[in-house]
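Example 4.3 (complexes with small molecules)
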Amino acid sequence: MTGQKRIIIVGAGIAGLTTAFWLHQSGHQLLLIDAGEVGQESTWAGGGIISAVPPWNYPDLVNRWVSRSRALYPSMIEVLEQRTGIDCEYRTSGLVLTGWPMTAATAWLAANAVTAMTGPLKNFQPNLSSPEQDAILLPDVTQVRNPRLASAFRAWLDHQPIDLLEHTAVERVLLSHKRVQGVRTVRGDTIPARHVVLACGAWTDRILLRSGLDRLGIEAIRGQMLLYRPQPALLNHIINTPAGYLIPRQDGRILAGATVESVGIDRRPSHTGFQQLAEMAQQLLPALEPDCIELHWSGLRPGIRGDEPVCGPHDLNHGLWLQSGGFRNGLGIAPAAAEHLTQQMNQAVS
Ligand SMILES: Cc1cc2nc3c(=O)[nH]c(=O)nc-3n(C[C@H](O)[C@H](O)[C@H](O)COP(=O)(O)OP(=O)(O)OC[C@H]3O[C@@H](n4cnc5c(N)ncnc54)[C@H](O)[C@@H]3O)c2cc1C
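Answer. The structure with flavin-adenine dinucleotide bound is encoded below.
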């Protein structure tokens, strides 16, 4: 470990974990703090699609970072898997988009030189309703299995000289004369540090407010998901329509997602959400066995107006860094955002 001062990362979801991964590679001394357990909030709940869906509805920054993340994921996953033996099921499964206005879609694909194929849906994926409907296949889109990725990070941390405090909620960042002094936990402990990264997802604004700072405008956006028991060979690609998506896992399980609900910090799944997703899935893939639903859950995405993630220094307070606002693309952008933040912090942290 170099003689660099300790950096505290608040939040051990994908934003905090990838930031820890990259900062650690740069030799920084880290303390990672989470109110619960590593990767068990939105990061566990997500679908793991490494693409904005559909990409043309999101800002250029998100698409650039997804593309960069797809270049970074394989080496990160290799490190995690070699260290832990946990298969994160990171793989290329392609994304089929259908039911979207084709003119805007094809214009975006051409302008961004994205590898894509167009044709009737049946050319890319059998078993779906509306086989003659226009569709686009993005063959390079990858996915990761979120709970496995979270477990791999948790096990990786055991092998690293990175301090980890779970079940420790940070109440606020301690500031004096616009400089970070550390954090205070809800138990009243003070942990000193010269630099603090807030990577606490949907809870980011709550901590900023408690620290006497302005909100960023990050809102908890609930997303519900259904998991179907293995029905092998039904689905090869991720399928996305304006009504939702289906994701085939390696073992034949299928995920149906996701609701988008502005309900505050409340991640109780609802009967309405269940019905909405089950109907969407059945309509899209009629061969799906309706009584094969194994799990129903929800998570709180860190939503932000304009869908532009926040990644960099706080405007007014030296030593305070922000890594949040991944919204529906938090897994997709995380490695690139972590790389970006690390480059900035390498220059500022001494
Ligand atoms: C149903 C659903 C489907 C999704 N599908 C996809 C997808 O296919 N692809 C994609 O890229 N993204 C997807 N997402 C979005 C993605 O999951 C999120 O953007 C991402 O997980 C956000 O990561 P995060 O680290 O910012 O937040 P989180 O994973 O929520 O982590 C924040 C962490 O901060 C901790 N924390 C909060 N408050 C405190 C405190 N006071 N003190 C200490 N710790 C604290 C929490 O315990 C938590 O562990 C989906 C999300 C949902 C819910």
